[in-house]
Recover the amino acids of this structure.
């Protein structure tokens, strides 16, 4: 039986399970996946992330959802929403993010999933705005933001990336209900 919170055409979105730690840890340990982050993450950091997502889901009804393909029931990573409170002109806010394993890249999953999460954010949760951020050098994520209709809000230096000059300059995009 599927335990999806919702689905899109090809994807199922669900809360995290303990069995997801190994697969997510493999993604977080991949230098290519994590090239726009300060470092890769180990299993312990991944478990803490999943725990944080489970708590966020319990508290607010959303998180960066674990995502599977519907046809193959293959776990591919996460796409979803998170509450952010770091020091920036647009926080606190609901942020959208995604991280997929390389085998899932180039298939339109991030765009499809992000569109479905926006529908969930505005129609189910009643949110008035969703933000997405990325280092300015991460053109692929910025392209997804543009494809789903988000508009540039501002450039900023991300407080968590100040020790990483190649990543610290970020862009924030925003979107509200249609």
């Amino acid at each position: 039986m599927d335990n999806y919170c919702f689905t899109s055409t090809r994807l199922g979105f669900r809360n995290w399970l303990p069995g997801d730690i190994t697969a997510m840890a493999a993604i977080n340990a991949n230098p290519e996946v994590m090239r726009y982050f300060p470092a890769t993450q180990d299993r312990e950091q991944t478990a803490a992330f999943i725990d944080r997502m489970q708590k966020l889901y319990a508290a607010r009804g959303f998180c960066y959802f674990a995502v599977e393909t519907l046809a193959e029931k293959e776990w591919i990573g996460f796409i979803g929403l998170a509450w952010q409170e770091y020091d920036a002109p647009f926080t606190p806010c609901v942020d959208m993010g995604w991280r997929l394993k390389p085998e899932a890249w180039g298939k339109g999953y991030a765009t499809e999933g992000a569109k479905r999460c926006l529908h969930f954010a505005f129609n189910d949760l009643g949110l008035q705005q969703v933000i997405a951020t990325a280092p300015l050098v991460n053109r692929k994520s910025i392209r997804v933001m543009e494809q789903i209709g988000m508009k540039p809000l501002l450039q900023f230096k991300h407080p968590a990336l100040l020790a990483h000059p190649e990543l610290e300059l970020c862009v924030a995009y925003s979107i509200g209900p249609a």
Notes: The chain has one domain: 6-175.
